[in-house]
Design a protein that fits this description.
Layout lengths: L10 E7 L13 E7 L2 E2 L2 H8 L2 H12 L1
Antiparallel strand pairs: 1-2, 2-3
Length: 66
């Protein structure tokens, strides 16, 4: 089994879902619903890996909101 390593500089068009403004700042229910990687749509496996990175999700949530 090959471990997938993501180059974050190749990730674009990130859409975050599950944003709850009552949880402002933490957004613990937010997740990456879709994103592109190097010009193509990310696979479910890649999205699962990305969704394990709470820092990325938090940053992407703020970018999407503001």
């Amino acid at each position: 089994m090959t471990k997938i390593e993501l180059d974050y500089s190749k990730i674009s068009n990130v859409f975050i879902d599950g944003i709850d403004m009552e949880d402002y700042g933490d957004f613990c229910d937010a997740y990456v619903e879709s994103a592109d990687y190097d010009g193509r749509e990310m696979t479910e496996e890649e999205l699962e890996i990305l969704n394990e990175d709470s820092y990325f999700i938090n940053e992407a949530t703020f970018k999407q909101l503001y």
